[in-house]
């Protein structure tokens, strides 16, 4: 699952980078770092880091606004000092140059990434449970019962006689009583995984939200360009007027952007995650009764004598 998440994130990041390289080349090089930070934050959020989608997205637009303002709205600016850049970042929060597009991006990503984050945390919890029960401590009574079941026939020279099925089940159920108590919680855990994967595949589809990031950013930039004069007037009042080249360059033309990359890669990534979802849930459903039936699983196969009338019952050959 994590591999599929990472594949989708890389695809969405490359797609977003292509947007700047194709339509907003004057700021493409400087926009590379904010784009990288945005997708790193998204990845960390999915993995359970103490962060929010809103903070990641708004931090990205804070970093983006000075670039849009100095490279597209007022391309004649020559002096973009740290103080002026910081003023632009802070002003972004007040003048909202990107309109509703930044907030819409937060809403869409929050819905889809929540289910992915919860699934990632649930899988980590499942691994902890499995690892903790993999080395279950055996009581002294259990150890004695296992020795009696496996090795006491050897004292009579009966090295090929194996335990009876019923006897094996009694011993294993006694040894694994504490592990079997996980049954109800494990069933509930499997149901939770089903719910989360269904949520990811339904209205909160991760693939669609990630693939649409480039479009949201493009719409936000276009909105800022269309409102360039008003934004410039407000910024001049708050941050002052920066140095301009003589014969101030005209504002960069607005470029309508179509699909910046082909859909083939996205379709492959989408199919990959969908297939993994189906395979995973199918597999996990089969393990729903794992902790309830662990004694039966252990007493199946070569451990016990199934197809013979002769077996060891703990006291004698019967």
UniProtKB/TrEMBL annotation:
Originating organism: Cardinalis cardinalis
PANTHER family given in the database record: GLYPICAN, GLYPICAN-5
Sorted UniProt keywords: Cell membrane, Glycoprotein, GPI-anchor, Heparan sulfate, Lipoprotein, Membrane, Proteoglycan, Signal
Gene Ontology biological-process annotations: cell migration; positive regulation of canonical Wnt signaling pathway; regulation of protein localization to membrane
Keyword Magnesium belongs to the record: no
Top-level taxonomic group: Eukaryota
GO cellular component assignments: cell surface; extracellular region; plasma membrane; side of membrane
Membrane topology listed for this record: Lipid-anchor; GPI-anchor
Protein name: GPC5 protein
Keyword Signal: yes
Primary residence: membrane
Pfam families tied to this protein: Glypican
Cellular location(s): Cell membrane
Protein family membership: Belongs to the glypican family.
Function description: Cell surface proteoglycan.
Signal peptide positions on this chain: none
Residue ranges of the TM segments: none
Family annotation (InterPro entries): Glypican, Glypican_CS
